[in-house]
Every structure is written in structure tokens, then in C-alpha cells.
Write a structure and sequence with these properties.
Elements lengths: L2 H11 L2 H13 L4 H14 L17 H5 L16 E3 L4 E8 L4 E5 L2 E4 H4 L4 H4 L6 E7 L6 E3 L4 E9 L8 H6 L3 H4 L2 E8 L2 E8 L6 E4 L3 E4 L7 E4 L9 E2 L4 E6 L2 E7 L4 E3 L8 E2 L4 E5 L3
Antiparallel strand pairs: 1-18, 2-5, 2-17, 3-4, 5-15, 6-14, 7-8, 7-12, 7-13, 8-9, 9-15, 10-11, 10-14, 16-18
Length: 289
């Protein structure tokens, strides 16, 4: 048995939720010198460029989560202002992107999964995106872990989908079937200038929590049942986020999947699998109608 096979087998056997919640408790704790040591070692291990962050020293952060979701300095990322351009929502690397065909999204070479399942299991939720486009971006431990809007939108619905907590690194994506549609996730559906847009925040091993700017921490402890929240399209209680605005954050890494309706966008030719992404830079444009 190869080392890669051993790593995958171990993921199936390990108590992923228990380990993730335990790590989450430490990440949220104000553990003084222990927190500072953990942050310093993490920076060194992953070669993190702290010069981009507003706070740059381990002692500047009360908790590991504060460090992991660190804010960038003003001007560290530029949001492309052209409303006809779709921008990267995160720093990371493209895992896969392309067409949604017959309800199938590409996970890795020779491995697909269901759009309907990804979005929570309802055909009507997935219907606007059938025949459309998807983009999956993986956030490595070294990356900036706040998620921003690729285009302006008004929140219509949020769905929490319980699930497993496999790692979402490239090795796991190539070897665990239906990875993004089996892991715990938060789905946000926005109304935009081109119709609905889905942003899926996928949990993973040792991801302590997923947050949104409008509801705070969603998981833990969202539970073992699918939960749905609906939001008004207008009025003082509506939630509208401009292009480039923060919409959520991961505490300890993961993946985003964005879905767009058919015949609305085209990806840039240079944006392909393994392309490094930088928040705010354009990677798709609206299709003229």
C-alpha cells in the first residue's frame, strides 16, 4: 500500500468531527504564551507573508483564530471595479472549474459529484445553475482566510448542510468520492445582475468554524439536520453586499465553490486548474446578451 493510500485510509478511520472540535477549542482559547508559540511555528512552517497583515507579530493576536482570520493592510488587495468582470473571492488556487453538465461538477480528473447534493438536495435550488459554470478554489493554510464577494449581490437564502469533515487538499480531492458534496458546508444564494449566484463554503478536517458576516458563526454547532434561512430582497432587513465586500471566513482553512447560471459568464483562458488566485483580480467576465 502506498503512502498516499495510507493517508486516505487514515482519514476514513479518524474521528474527524471530534478532532476538529478539539482543535477549534484551542484555536478559540486565549492561551497566552502557548498561543504565541503556536502562531510563530505556524508562520514559520507555512512561510506566511505577514507583511501584508495589519497585525504582524504573534503577540498581537489574543487567539490562534484571530491570527488565522487576520485582516490585511489597506491596499494589500485591489478589487477590480469593472462590474462586467467577476473577481476571485479568495486567495488560494483553482482546484477545478468549468461547465456544470447533467448535474455534474468536476471534483478531480475522472471524479464528479452532484450539484443538487452540493446545494442541499433540492432540485429547485440547483435548477438555475444547471448547464451553468462552477469554480472551486482551495485555500491552503498559508492563505488569507476571509471570503469576499466576486460580484455584488443581495442574499436570498442560506443553507447549512451537515456532513463529514474530510481534508480538502488535492490528494483527498483526487481520492475521496463526492468530497465537496459530503463534507459539512454552508451555502449562500445571492441575487445578482446575472441572476442567482451560489457561494458554497466547504468545511474540512480541523476547520474550527465557518462564519458569515450577517449571521456570525454557523458551524459549530449547527446540528445534524439541514437548516435553511430566507432573507428579504429589499427593505431595511435585506442584506446587500457590494463586489469585494467580505461575506464570510474560515477558521482553519478549506474550499469555496461558486456556481453561476447558464449563458451568463465566461472564464478567462488563463484561469485554469492550479492557477494561483488573488482576491479581487478578475477571472471571468459577463456574457453580452
Amino acid at each position: 500500500m502506498s503512502l498516499d493510500n495510507i493517508k486516505i485510509a487514515f482519514q476514513y478511520m479518524m474521528p474527524k468531527h471530534g478532532i476538529s472540535r478539539l482543535v477549534g477549542k484551542f484555536a478559540a482559547a486565549k492561551a497566552g504564551w502557548l498561543t504565541r508559540v503556536a502562531i510563530a511555528r505556524f508562520i514559520k512552517a507555512y512561510g506566511i507573508d505577514m507583511s501584508e497583515a495589519k497585525l504582524q507579530n504573534p503577540e498581537d493576536f489574543a487567539t490562534f483564530n484571530d491570527f488565522f482570520t487576520r485582516e490585511l493592510q489597506d491596499g494589500a488587495r485591489t478589487i477590480n471595479p469593472d462590474q462586467d468582470e467577476i473577481c476571485y473571492p479568495v486567495d488560494g488556487a483553482i482546484s477545478q472549474q468549468g461547465d456544470i453538465v447533467d448535474d455534474q461538477i468536476i471534483q478531480a480528473k475522472g471524479c464528479n459529484y452532484s450539484l443538487v447534493t452540493l446545494l442541499g438536495g433540492k432540485e429547485e435550488t440547483a435548477a438555475p445553475f444547471q448547464g451553468g459554470k462552477f469554480s472551486t478554489i482551495y485555500l491552503a493554510p498559508k492563505d488569507y482566510h476571509r471570503i469576499h464577494m466576486p460580484m455584488a449581490g443581495t442574499l436570498r437564502e442560506m443553507i447549512f448542510v451537515p456532513g463529514d469533515l474530510f481534508s480538502v487538499n488535492p490528494l483527498t480531492a483526487q481520492n475521496v468520492p463526492n468530497l465537496f458534496a459530503r463534507n459539512e458546508r454552508v451555502v449562500a444564494i445571492f441575487d445578482t445582475a446575472i441572476g442567482p449566484m451560489a457561494m458554497v463554503l466547504v468545511g474540512a478536517t480541523i476547520v474550527a468554524s465557518i462564519e458569515t458576516v450577517w449571521a456570525g458563526t454557523i458551524t459549530p454547532p449547527a446540528g445534524k439536520q439541514i437548516q435553511t434561512w430566507s432573507y428579504p430582497s429589499e427593505g431595511e432587513n435585506s442584506i446587500h453586499l457590494e463586489k469585494g465586500a467580505e461575506m464570510g471566513r474560515f477558521k482553519l482553512g478549506s474550499t469555496t465553490v461558486c456556481c453561476f447560471p447558464a449563458d451568463t459568464i465566461e472564464f478567462s483562458p488563463e484561469a485554469d486548474a492550479e492557477t494561483v488566485t488573488r482576491l479581487g483580480q478578475p477571472y471571468a467576465h459577463l456574457v453580452a446578451k
